[in-house]
Design goal:
299 residues, Rossmann fold, 6-stranded parallel sheet, two-stranded parallel sheet, binds NADP nicotinamide-adenine-dinucleotide phosphate
Length: 299
């Protein structure tokens, strides 16, 4: 692989920020780009990227992630989740550099009943999942050296995520209702970022290999429900003096949303471990560490 920094797209997004931090901690040069200078809504803003930054690798962590808003903003979701990544992939192909593209568990309908493997058929339930699936396909069909990493339930010490939503709610109320019949794998943005930096190091070490192309699942180890996740968040926050609210388990049917969420989107990450030697940590330890960071204000 060529010398040069890792080019990270996604501006101030949770994963983009975590990637920047993980790369710097590993002593790897990184450049992070975001709006307005990098904007999938202005496709020509991408065109000089690879020439200007001469990266060794591109990681696309930019996406339209507002799951419910996507239902009424379909064109923008496809611009950011399919057309933009397709253009980024053709730039990577032209420059001869690999592209790591991040995707989602929402490509599945959640009806399998056991963790999904990469070869399971996708069947998204809404515009967000469909646009991300279209993006995966566009990237893989582009001719670029492309690795697609599907992740799930991402949270960090900053940004818009379930952990911060729960902690904020605990300041306002002593009773919450949380869905208890959807299962998934919580993923700390910092863990996924470290996994991506480790994959980048592997690419640098071995050069590109055919086995690196395609889809890989990359989520925190273990799984829970949103209700179990909320209980774990409050158990950790209690160590910092936060009074835990009562968390009432409810059914999905009691919490209607514009987009149907997959009931069970657990991801089997064995292929990632076998190919890249990378396994994300157990979700409980990462949650505990993240909540410590939030309370220490060290994120
Ligand atoms: N969050 C989750 O629970 C979750 C679950 C599964 C998969 N994922 C995937 O993980 C990846 C990272 O997600 P995240 O949680 O870091 O999301 P995030 O915090 O919402 O960040 C996404 C970033 O994408 C950028 N962006 C949005 N629209 C754009 C556009 N039209 N042009 C250029 N940049 C645009 C924004 O950057 P600016 O700062 O420049 O505005 C935004 O900060 C995404 O591919 C997402 O689909 C996330």
């Amino acid at each position: 692989m060529a010398d040069g920094p890792i080019l990270i797209t996604g501006g101030s997004g949770q994963l983009a920020r975590a990637l920047d931090k993980a790369a710097r901690a590993a002593g790897v040069a990184a450049v992070r780009v975001g709006r307005p200078e990098f904007d999938f809504d202005r496709p020509d803003s991408l065109d000089t990227l690879t020439r200007h930054h001469a990266p060794a690798l591109v990681v696309n962590a930019a996406a339209y992630t507002a799951v419910d808003a996507a239902e009424t903003d379909e064109a923008a979701a496809y611009r950011a989740n399919r057309d933009g990544p397709a253009r980024l992939a053709s730039l990577a192909a032209a420059a001869g550099i690999p592209l790591l593209h991040v995707s989602t568990d929402f490509v599945f309908d959640g009806r399998k009943g056991e963790p999904y493997v990469e070869s399971d058929p996708a069947s998204p339930q809404g515009v967000y999942g469909a646009s991300k699936l279209a993006g995966e396909r566009a990237v893989l069909d582009s001719g670029a050296r492309a690795t697609v990493l599907r992740t799930s339930w991402v949270y960090g010490a900053q940004g818009k995520n379930f952990v911060l939503t729960m902690l904020n709610a605990a300041r306002r109320t002593d009773r919450l209702r949380v869905v208890a019949d959807q299962k998934g794998c919580p993923t700390a943005a910092s863990d996924l970022a470290q996994a991506i930096v480790a994959i980048a190091a592997r690419l640098r070490q071995t050069g590109w290999q055919d086995g690196y192309a395609g889809i890989f699942h990359a989520a925190g180890t273990g799984s829970t429900t949103w209700h179990g996740f909320a209980e774990a968040i409050f158990a950790n926050a209690a160590r910092h003096g936060v009074k835990p609210p009562v968390v009432e388990p409810i059914a999905t049917a009691d919490w209607p949303t514009p987009t149907r969420r997959p009931a069970d989107s657990r991801l089997d990450c064995a292929k990632l471990a076998a190919t890249f030697g990378v396994r994300l940590p157990e979700w409980q330890g990462s949650l505990s560490r993240t909540i410590d960071e939030i309370h220490a204000g060290t994120a």
